[in-house]
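Service request form, structural biology core

Requester: graduate student, group of Dr. S.
Request type: structure prediction, single chain
Budget code: on file
Notes: please return the result as structure tokens.

Sequence provided:
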Amino acid sequence: MPFRLPPSRWPIWNGWKFSNKFLKPTTLIIYIQDLKREAVTPEKLKTLIKGEKDKKLPELLKIYQAYQKAIAERGRYDFEDMINLVIEAFAKNKNLLTTYQERLQYFLIDEYQDTNSGQNQVINLLARFWGQEANVFVVGDPSQSIYRFQGASLENAIEFTKTYPKAKVIALEQNYRSHQIILDAAHDLIQKNKLKIEDVVPTAKARLQSPTQSPAGLKIKPASIN
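Core staff response, request fulfilled:
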């Protein structure tokens, strides 16, 4: 069953002496969750931090290893593990992976802008069986990516076009939710982003249009953002 305790109640904290003031239970849970959402296991983290001078990274690795050991001994897993355990099972058991690759032939992912690296790895592992002919259909708006705290990022959408170069990009330009004045204000704001999807995928560029007229007298003052 999923394992979720307040950080202060984690059994591995008992008697642990933190040598770095930045490594506390309240921040460690965030670090470990972020690592798992990027599908970074303790073994992978150990490789990634080789040569790094940041002294808190080796201690973070030890705590991450201790945490995984503690929940494994209790027959538990946390919410982020539900994705990573699937990736691990597919890596260890090729027959299991092949079984699901043959069974699942069509993939539809909605709100793709909110996916994280771990979730993308599961999709790519399953679709890889079909190569560039994989039937993968994703729907999303990278400009609406608001789940960064869960590992979502614009880079995931960009990576999709690299993984599936034959994918056809369809930019939707009609918006039925908002008045044009709101769409224009949002567009002007988004243009200030340092990285936009159209910078890498030109065919994804779209200027939303609304079929409804804005109420008379409605004005929006542009925000000043540096």
